[in-house]
Design a protein that fits this description.
heterodimer; A: 677 residues; mainly beta; Porin; 13-stranded antiparallel sheet; twelve-stranded antiparallel beta barrel; 10 helices; B: 188 residues; twelve-stranded antiparallel sheet; 3 helices; 12 strands; 49% strand
């Protein structure tokens, strides 16, 4: 028996023969930024919702990975690799490859005292395929702070010691793959070709130190002999936690190279400042009037009517990320001002003149709720939702607002320079002459940055609706990012509309009309939007170019349990192409949102260019989560591996689904824990 | 209102992270001049004076200028606001009284999903002895009670209670992240 077979048999023996130890160590991320030992995967998963950013490098192979624990069992890794000296299929030599890849890891079985955890994974299935491989792997905790993993791999994971595919002759041949333009999914290659065994041990004596040794079945077929000389299948790695969420790793890889890795983890479900700072309204009395006290709380009174035992109130929340917190604060203020004869209060939230469902609060139950032993559960049970009633609006107290704030516009993954950015100051102004009418604009003055240094010009064969972004960055000094007049209306409680005119976004001007039907109590909503657009001049002023287009979409929105959601948009895009966009997302009650989208249109992959079709991820981080301070603003970034012209949509402000979402009973209910906050 | 302004000015002079310096500001003369109920709140990161705010039934809320609120019933902490990982609500269990046998208590916190999470424990209250408490205007004799809740890694709260039921000093658990908070009564 050779040593390799002995090690595998021994690993299998200890995995089956040892009782599980209750280890509670953080997940280890491998050099691919995925759950793993050093180069190989393991069957464990991170805590639900964990986000890991990792950078690893050895022998000119640098991998930058974002891994999201999508659900307790499923994680997805998005990788951007900078690879030097690669010998591709057909012995084609590449000085450098900038490779984007996506990997999925699913834990099939949880670990029990009798059995290891098991996971299945697919690496690099929409990229060039340079890392393409599939695996099943088992991991078991052992006594002595050890854990053992043993797996069977295909594709890249079957480079060393490969044997005939145990899945049978139908899976015996793995189709060849050229690096191509990427973007295409090669389902027919999954679990095909030879298979090979890999495995290893992990030792975590304490919270800071994490040592691993593994047998890697990856032969590094495109790197061996060009970027480094692989001499051994054995790897060792030491990870040290500089902070609980920041880990530094050093590895000795393939008997040849030293590698280093930095991994940073963050979890939207673990806010650094807990429920946040700030306190409810001071309970002293004698304040001048309701509107001003509400305003001091960050709430604007939009309408009020008191009739007998009932009060109807409409509030605009300008301060609190959780909707229920705004309602709780409003109720505290109202309780001080409403006459004792009022026994029931209907409070609805409003935004841009659109009003959401009303929360019906029994005043006596509210009084008992705050310090009740059940944490206000009985009070919550007594709270109902009702359609908003029409109440004469109060003239807005503060109709004009403005702010100056720093901005940062990064452009990731430029083939010549993966990190470009401009930074400067943005002047935002907003005037609401009457409820439902909003005039808003953003003026940007760049102070520093290198976006204008992008030398690569568009080679697109489509109308250049997005790929001329470098020209927009190069021309002009101060830019009017947007300047619009918008009119929001609500013909029925469940139907909202928007009309927007002006400079809609940095690249397009025109008119945009939208309607949204969001039935109360449903998990879905339907919307439609039509836009008549003209491309703006590169200098960021009022001028326009010749290109005109009519675009628009019908949209289906759905939000299921645990914050998982989907959005399907079907229609015409900026380059005149027809198709659809599917967005899958996970939202958290605290305001975090992660999503991934893909757009397929009638533009052939070859005409689209690099990447074959438009896709990317969206990340929204609430600033209240970062700072602990009550505030509503969020940081949203859409990250595309490459910006092309197919499948592009106009980026108009105030789209109705997101605008009215915080006003809904569902969101109020999801954030209810903050009502007494 | 004058008293509030005086206290705020007083507190503004004290480094918020130095409880000893803050405590030293509240000498007998100052406290007599202020003539309002005051407690000093100290956590690992913060020291701030609080004045009495709203009374809702049995619940007394104390408020600082630093946007911190605590609420208590007869000296037992039942809620905090503005500390970050706040105690959303707790019950008082048996309260601070001699001879309380084993009793149930619970604490509720908000998790990252904005849901209230309840933590339950069985508690015992033991009288550890008596001592003289040094307050600026009086030196009451206090009984020292220690409340122990839970089994392994228990929550341990300490109360110094005068004969008239005033809790002059206490150290009570808020949350895993905030840890313990010390509440010292300066003036009744």
């Amino acid at each position: 028996m050779d040593m390799r077979a002995f090690v595998f048999l021994w690993l299998w023996y200890v995995m089956l023969g040892s009782a599980a130890e209750g280890q509670d160590r953080p997940l280890r991320y491998n050099t691919y930024g995925a759950p793993g030992l050093i180069d190989m995967p393991i069957a464990s998963s991170a805590e639900d919702a964990e986000l890991a950013f990792s950078v690893s490098s050895f022998a000119g192979q640098t991998r930058n990975t974002l891994t999201f624990q999508v659900s307790p069992r499923l994680s997805a890794s998005l990788r951007y690799a900078d690879l030097d000296n690669i010998l591709g299929p057909g012995d084609v030599f590449y000085d450098t490859i900038l490779d984007r890849s996506l990997a999925l890891h699913y834990r099939l079985l949880d670990e029990t005292p009798q059995r290891p955890a098991m996971a299945i994974g697919i690496a690099d299935f929409v990229g060039t395929g340079i890392y393409a491989g599939e695996y099943v792997v088992a991991t078991k905790s052992l006594p002595g702070d050890l854990s053992a993993s043993l797996g069977l791999g295909w594709g890249r994971y079957a480079g060393v010691g490969g044997v005939d595919n145990p899945l049978g002759s139908a899976f015996a041949d793995r189709p060849a793959r050229d690096f191509g333009a990427g973007g295409e999914v090669s389902l027919d290659a999954f679990f095909t070709g030879d298979a090979a065994v890999f495995g290893g041990l992990r030792w975590t004596p304490n919270d800071r130190v994490d040592l691993a040794v593994e047998y890697s079945s990856d032969a590094y077929p495109y790197e061996d002999g060009v970027s480094f000389d692989r001499r051994s299948p054995w790897n060792v790695g030491l990870t040290y936690a500089l902070r609980p969420n920041l880990r530094l790793s050093g590895q000795y890889l393939y008997g040849a190279e030293i590698g280093a890795q930095l991994t940073y983890v963050i979890n939207p479900l673990q806010p650094p400042f807990g429920s946040g700072f700030g306190v409810p309204v001071a309970p002293s009395s004698g304040a001048p009037d309701l509107s001003r006290v509400l305003e001091a709380e960050g709430l604007a009174l939009r309408a009020i009517r008191v009739a007998g035992p009932r009060a109807d109130v409409v509030i605009e929340n300008k301060k609190f990320a959780p909707s229920a917190q705004a309602l709780g604060r409003a109720m505290r203020v109202l309780a001080r001002f409403l006459p004792d004869s009022v026994r029931v209060v209907h409070i609805a939230l409003a935004q841009n003149g659109l009003v959401g469902e009303a929360v019906v609060i029994d005043r006596a139950a509210w009084r008992q709720g705050e310090f009740s032993n059940d944490g206000g559960a009985a009070f919550r049970d007594a709270v109902a939702f009702a359609p908003p009633v029409e109440v004469d609006p109060v003239r807005p107290a503060s109709r004009f607002t403005w702010s100056v704030s720093p901005y940062l516009t990064p452009n990731l993954f430029d083939p010549d320079n993966p990190l470009r950015a401009d930074a400067g100051l943005a002047l935002d102004a907003r005037w609401q002459p009457r409820q439902g009418v909003v005039v808003a604009g953003t003026l940007r003055q760049k102070l520093a940055g290198n976006l204008d240094q992008a030398a690569r010009m568009s080679d697109s064969v489509l109308p250049r609706v997005r790929s001329d972004f470098a020209l927009y960055d190069q021309e002009g000094d101060a830019d009017i990012a947007d300047l619009t007049l918008a009119w929001y209306a609500q013909p029925r409680a469940e139907v909202t509309t928007r009309l927007t005119f002006g400079l809609l976004e940095p690249m397009f001007a025109g008119a945009s009309a939208e309607v949204l039907w969001r039935p109360a109590g449903q998990t879905w909503a339907l919307g439609a939007e039509i836009n008549q657009l003209q491309q703006r001049d590169f200098d960021g002023d009022f001028g326009v170019l010749d290109y005109e287009v009519t675009s628009g979409h019908a949209s289906l929105y759905w939000e299921g349990a645990a914050g998982y959601g989907a959005q399907l948009d079907m229609g015409r895009y900026l380059a005149g192409d027809w198709g659809g966009t599917l967005t899958l997302s996970r939202r958290f009650a605290n305001g975090w949102m992660l999503g991934a989208f893909a757009t397929l249109t009638d533009v052939p992959f070859d005409d689209f260019g690099e990447g074959s079709f438009d896709k990317g991820i969206v990340l929204t981080v609430p600033l209240s989560w970062i700072s602990g301070q009550p505030r509503r603003d969020v940081l949203t970034r859409t990250i595309r591996p490459v910006t092309r012209d197919g499948g592009a949509r106009v980026a108009v402000e105030g789209r109705l689904y997101e605008l009215t979402r915080p006003l809904t009973a569902r969101v109020i209910d999801d954030t209810w824990g903050t009502f007494w906050r | 209102m004058k008293r509030l302004i005086a206290m705020i000015l007083l507190a503004a002079c004290a480094p918020a992270s130095d409880p000893a310096a803050l405590r030293a500001l509240f000498d007998a003369e100052q406290v007599a001049r202020l003539n309002v109920p005051v407690i000093l709140l100290t956590t690992e990161d913060l020291a701030t004076p609080l004045i009495a705010g709203a009374q809702t039934g049995r619940v007394q809320t104390w408020q600082s200028r630093d946007e911190v609120q605590v609420s208590e019933i007869a000296g037992v902490l039942i809620a905090t606001r503005g500390l970050g990982h706040d105690l959303m609500v707790a019950d008082v269990g048996a309260g601070v009284r001699a001879g309380a046998d084993q009793y149930a208590r619970h604490w509720m916190h908000l998790d990252g999903r904005l849901q209230l999470v309840r933590q339950d424990a069985q508690c015992r209250l033991a009288l550890q002895g008596t001592q003289i408490h040094q307050a600026p205007l009086e030196t009451p004799l206090v009984q020292v009670f220690v409340e122990t809740c839970g089994g392994t890694d228990p929550i341990t709260n300490t109360y110094h209670m005068g004969a008239d039921g005033v809790v002059w000093w206490s150290q009570q658990w808020v949350s895993d992240q905030v840890g313990m908070v010390t509440l010292e009564r300066i003036a009744r």
